[in-house]
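protien #1 (seq + structre)
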Amino acid sequence: MKKIVFLLFAIALLVACKESNKKNTKILAESSGRLNSLSIIVDNELWEGSVGENIREKLASPVDGLPQQEPLFSLDQMPLKSFSGFAARNRTFLHIKKSATPTFEIVKDTLARPQTGIYVAGSSSNEINGIINENISKIIQSFKNTELKEQQKRISKSLKSDDKLKEKLGVSLKFPTAYRYAKNEDDFFWIRKEIRHGSMEILIYEVPLSVIDKDTNVIGNIIKMRDSIGEQHVPGPNEGSFLITEEAYAPYLFESKIDGKFAYETKGTWEVKGAFMAGPFINYAVRDEKNDRYVILEGFVFKPSNSKRDNVFELESILKSAKIN
């Protein structure tokens, strides 16, 4: 009898705890905001002074590899008193104020979901700027990761089949149905999407490790590889014209990871040898030691006289979804 009473008491306690947890669980609204836009919550006095200047210099700096200057984030400033209601649902925000207590805090999903917010406080403009400067890499990466996940979530709503890629190259990739296969060969894929004023392109192929690793001139080897592939597979509009790396400017080279594997990330501008065409590209050479190869994932945009930042970001989000078997 005592055992039965104890069991009933335990069940009642468990149910009560669950009900209590439900009541304490905060129901959050869905976040909003344009991709790559960032809300800056700071009073006008700070925004119009050195703090605002520092924020614009760091967070609206030009994106690497674009032919025209475009900001890393589009900044929307509002004073502290305006940060409530719908405005507090922005997907990313940087909240700055004066306080006797120095503060740097990254928070997730506190006012909406998904959401990344960063709080910075200091007793003076100099102290606030010092905190921002010390943590700028974390700030940028936190916001970029949030936007990347949001872009990939939007892409995942309607996916094109990647069975051909898996079968021939052992690569899976999440890209929308708006793209089509322009070229489908055993060791080379060209996928494209028509957009207003131009097109967005994805190239996927493989090369032996020795193509990039043959010496220490990694960027030079990647350029030679790109130009060779362009001549073989990506013709331009005129007879004998083809895709190459723009000769006037060296691309940017970074180290990255795709699917947990080391990758060289190259950003720069492409052009067509023998025709007047150009635009930005992003290239990942993913080291696949298991198969003695680099898997090359590249996206490039043709959209003359128009902004291209968000197009390149969409391509980056697609390429970073790759899984290599």
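ok now protien #2
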Amino acid sequence: MIKRLIALISALALIASPVQAASKKPTPTPTAKASAQATAKPSVKATPKPSVSKKPSASKKPVVKKKAVVKKKKKRKKIPVSPSPKAAWPPLNFKANGEVYAKIPTAKELIGTASNSKILTAQLAQKVDGVAICEKYSCGAVQVASLNGCTWWEVTGKIVGATSPDDKTLKIFGTIRTTARETAPMQITTILLISQELLMQNHAVANIKANCHHDAAIEKIPSTTYAVNSN
């Protein structure tokens, strides 16, 4: 009985096996061709190495050309120049003789005039034996002007002084003649008269006369001559 049961079980097992095989569809063997849906093999992801990130280089700023600054010229205010006041006419303290005006300046006035006259300064700066000319010789001066102007001037003067230390009688020792350049109408000019008489003798220039010429000069201008009085 037991043997029949075992045999029956074995027979059933043999019969059931082909049935299962028939019910199962044959599984297709995988082809070697890779399909698009093939399961990708897990790729070993490379561990990302810490990359040294380059610092963003400072981008060069475009060079901006500076516009040339055009300086505006400041307009200078025009300062009105007032014309020099005209000299008072007739000149103060001058003596008139027709169109000619003349005055004997004081020593102070002569120094003041010389400071503004290169010609007069040069004349006074002349030296004789290392001494200023008018500190060695007797000198005189006259300021002259003419209403109409002059082409040249002629000035004469007498050198006078005591006859001797004991005789105080005035005596004429010589005559000075000086010529000067042209002057414009109402222009004041100072003319220096230089003698050859020593100043220590206390002689003076007197009797000064000024002559305004309107004709052309035929001699050297300016000039000075001194003539000793023979008497």
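The first helix runs from residue 2 to 23.
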